[in-house]
Target: TfoX N-terminal domain-containing protein
Amino acid sequence: MFGGRCIMVGGKIIVSVRRNGSLLVRVATEDHDLYLAEPGAAPAEMGRGRVMGPGWIAVDPECVLDEGLVFWIQAALAHNHAVTRSQHAES
Model:
């Protein structure tokens, strides 16, 4: 999925490692611009020039080593937890 290996939590994608080594990260849409200020972060694209929209961030491979990887996984898990928590509250 998304041209790489995805990690899902609660049936939702949190990150995907793409073939080129970059990381596709699902974050809260309201924090999208905040995350774009991080090193190596850019709006995720699905094909050349087709931006995926707020909440999807692409991170360069050299920025997902060690602490960088931990940072992005924590960001994705925080969003996932908020989304799944609100879905359970609605049930």
Remarks:
- The CA atoms of residues 61 and 75 lie 17 Å apart.
- Residues 4-90 form one domain.
- The radius of gyration is 13 Å.
- The chain has one domain: 4-90.
